[in-house]
Amino acid sequence: MAGSTHTRITGIGTAKSEAAGPLPAHWAVREVMDIRQAAEYLGISPDSLYKYASENFIPAFKLGNRWRFKRSLLESWMERQSSIGPGKTPEKSVKPKQKKPVGRAR
What radius of gyration do the chain's Cα atoms show? Predict the structure, then answer.
């Protein structure tokens, strides 16, 4: 339908109207997501996201013993990561593991 609007939940008690097509059900997520929701939002596996969160590579916090992800922080992190471009270093680079020296052949 031309001119129709759709409402997207953007946080607790707030909504945003959009003139675009309907959003998938999984995109109407809360501001704070658990590891499964955040992994689906980012398009990666929960195992990968857990690793990135525990290495402080991606913005996250723990609530009790469970990881939580704030959507606005993930969006700004993705924006910063995508604007880095070739030849520039990220804010926090992950150093490659040092290889052990190879022993002499006999």
Answer: 20
26 is written with which tokens?
Answer: 């999984």
Regarding the domain delimited by 30-83, which CATH topology (the fold level of the hierarchy) does it fall under?
Molybdopterin biosynthesis moea protein, domain 2 (3.90.105)
Kindly list the domain boundaries of the chain, sorted by start residue: 30-83
DSSP the chain: -TT--EEEEEETTEEEEESSSPPPGGGS--SEE-HHHHHHHHTS-HHHHHHHHHTTSS--EEETTEEEEEHHHHHHHHHHHHTS-TT---SSPPPPPPPPPPPPP-
For the stretch 76-94, pLDDT in tens is 999 998 987 665 555 555 5
In tens, the pLDDT along 24-75 reads 555 555 789 999 999 999 999 999 999 999 999 999 999 999 999 999 999 9
